[in-house]
Design brief:
The protein contains 18 helices and 11 strands. The longest helix is centred in the middle third of the chain and has 20 residues, at 168-187. The strands form 2 sheets. A 6-stranded mixed β-sheet has the order 1-2-6-3-5-4, sandwiched between helices. Strands 7-11-8-10-9 form a 5-stranded mixed β-sheet, sandwiched between helices. α4 crosses α10, α12 (321-337) packs across α18 (459-468) and α14 (385-402) crosses α18. 45% of the residues are buried. With 500 residues, it is an alpha+beta fold. The structure holds zinc ion. Zinc ion (ZN) is lined by residues 14, 101, 105, 181, 500. Residues 14, 101, 105, 181, 500 line the site of zinc ion.
Amino acid sequence: MKPILTAAWLGWALQAAAQVSGPATPPAPPSAVSTPATPAACAPGASSAESKACTAVRRYTLANGMAVIVKPDHRAPTAIHMVLVRVGSMDEVDGTSGVAHAVEHMMFKGTSTLKPGDFSRKVAALGGRENAFTTRDYTGYYQQIPVEKLADVMALESDRFAGNRWDDDEFKREIEVIKEERRMRTDDSPRAQLGEAQMAAVYNASPYRRPVIGWMNDLDAMTPDDVRGFYRRWYTPANAALVVVGDVDPDQVLALAQRHYGGIPAAPVPVSKPRVEPQQTGIRQLSVKAPAEQAYVQLAFKVPRLDPRDLETPLDQPLKPAATDALSLTVLSAVLDGYSGARLFRALTQGSNRLADSADASNGLIGRGPQLFMLSGVPAPGKSTAALRDALREQVAKIAKDGVSEAELNRVKTQWIAGEVYQLDSVMNQARELGNYWIWEQPLDSGERLIERLKRITPAQVQDVAARYFGDDQLTVADLIPQPIDKNKKPRTPPPGSRH
Ligand SMILES: [Zn+2]
């Protein structure tokens, strides 16, 4: 099963491996003095209305413009402290691709009081886990800590947010780490190469055409002042949000935030040029040759996205047609590939004469930039990418012709509701979801609103989008043509310190 926002959440992020594989630190027992008091409404035995109120999301804005979003979750004495900056690779300009991600790396390299590496050492000493990530749309930094250490990580994070400092030699070392990260994640990965080449073909004007990690030549040419300039320009309080989820009291978090972040001077938020993608008017095709075990084909169709304001429309009023289409396309992707045994799996990957070893569908739905509906797959041995490409499109055409059943739609919706609940079980996911809604300028209860809107999508609406968005004119097809693998080539090992 895929969560609704898979593609958008992952958002072509450079996810840090440590985020998923880092050792879990058992939270220390809460200390009596610094643990925020549990509000009466949150005590055991509170009514369900009371307990709903005690875990309600609170949002504040500091005088310097920084957003503070707090969600209490009293199930464990732990908290997520996350700072998001509304700047990602889409805010870069040609020649300095990769600079948003380079800033993220350099944020670990010191302040006026901390030496390189001190930040991470101090977080570890507090019993915390931490990391950072850069996506096309935003950059994020987070720590998971025993709740009584919240003020300590706030002091550390606000210090580097306002005063990141390092010398040129430190940058020269780190840019080599970043280049090695590019070699490992992109140059040595045939599918990542294909994805990178495909995005550069899908988009002409949109900054989504550039990879988050940056082109190698731009990394070669990057200077310390490129990084400092980008940091100074974009890391301003009004372009950032602090998200705290965990065993906390919102008013106390606000007081801490005022103390640690409130003193950072206000500065204007820069405005990126719109760079709207012109209408595509014909099929685009590309192929990538790379050493690989198997071929692969990926189809990208341009589709409308859910506009930030769309979810604010009251439920009893109809959405704009583009918003209804974006939601219907998301339901369509789930009918194709949203649960075990869904259409693509059944039609393409079963039996000895199967066409594919795997087949996937996903819809972008939400983001700061334009979105895509993707179909992709690995042909089974002896089958061609051309045959698989046609078969993937055939599955959509079938829905355009015959529609989907109410039962199929119900299955998808039930899975989503369960999936959303399961997902929100983790404080990290809650923080990330709230952070995403802030990044995309959506209401903070967008998760619930989204589910309500998706529930209202009808079989006729799914059939309708299947008929309208999958022609040739908005399509970019990319084929991976496998080349022999050099068996003597040693796999790369990550360079020391490459964890962001
Ligand atoms: Zn990195």
